Amino acid sequence: MRRFEDKIALVTGAASGIGRATAERLAKEGAALLLCDVQEEGLAATAKQCEELGAKVATALCDVSKPDAVRAAVAACIQEHGALDVLVNVAGILSLERTEEVHLETWERILSVNLTGTFLMCQAALPYLLERGGNIVNLSSTSALGGMAYGAAYGASKGGVLALTRTLAVEYAKRGVRANAICPGSIKTPMTTRSGLPEDPDWKLLQRAMPLDEPRGPETVASVIAMIASEDGAHINGESIRVDGGTLS
Ligand SMILES: NC(=O)c1ccc[n+]([C@@H]2O[C@H](COP(=O)([O-])OP(=O)(O)OC[C@H]3O[C@@H](n4cnc5c(N)ncnc54)[C@H](O)[C@@H]3O)[C@@H](O)[C@H]2O)c1
């Protein structure tokens, strides 16, 4: 399948996990790419891998919570590739703590990367997406749909991403731009393997977030992102798709 031939995609969070798997999937399917992240080394490794898959690739070191950096990344995409068809907002951070112990700084940083960063990217990309009838895929989470213990800021940020996505879908549908969200459950990536837990956590509560089948990797999410961002998803707008192995079924 080469559903992204002649298409240009911007992927944030591309240095690792779901962002890297998405970049590779889109590269395999013919997309030219602008890849963003704050991790220089990981970003270069993803770019190299995508080039080996035949894609034209440019990168931008970009903290998505910073408006100037976001505008510069979108400008770099236009300068390198001349247009933008697909924006995939994957960059995100997680911190797991008991709610009574969350510092305001942590709350604000999580909201600013996961929610404000997604908003800033959408805002900067929209003029170009409107020119080409493009679309946006935002990474939300099952924590936006069902309570996730110890993830107050994270869940709130991902709930905001869902609301933002539906707003964009309604506001821009008539002008030819779609926006959808993906809600992964627990996926094996560096985020989930490194995230610490509060002391003496309630394992029954943590078990609620586990897939019913078996742990899966980021490719499981990338394939759904590729479907919804392609012409195969042309009539899907404002939707959120769970990729959680039945966790919330
Ligand atoms: N892994 C899961 O189980 C899971 C579940 C639900 C949702 N998600 C969401 O999927 C997305 C990707 O998660 P992942 O599991 O691949 O995690 P990951 O940690 O492997 O990748 C996240 C990437 O985002 C980048 N990033 C962090 N802050 C950034 C910033 N300010 N600006 C630009 N880039 C930044 C990181 O450097 C990293 O490369 C996140 O939005 C996450 O919330 C993941």
Describe this structure in words.
The structure is a single chain. Helix content is 45%, strand content 14%. By secondary structure, it is an alpha/beta fold. The protein has one domain (8-243): NAD(P)-binding Rossmann-like Domain (Rossmann fold, 3-Layer(aba) Sandwich), CATH 3.40.50.720. The chain has a seven-stranded parallel β-sheet with strand order 3-2-1-4-5-6-7, with helices on both faces. Helix 1 (17-28) packs across helix 8 (219-229) and helix 3 (67-81) runs parallel beside helix 4. It is globular. The mean pLDDT is 97. The protein binds nicotinamide-adenine-dinucleotide. Nicotinamide-adenine-dinucleotide is lined by residues 12-13, 15-19, 36-39, 42, 62-65, 90-94, 113, 117, 139, 141, 184, 186-187, 189-192, 218.
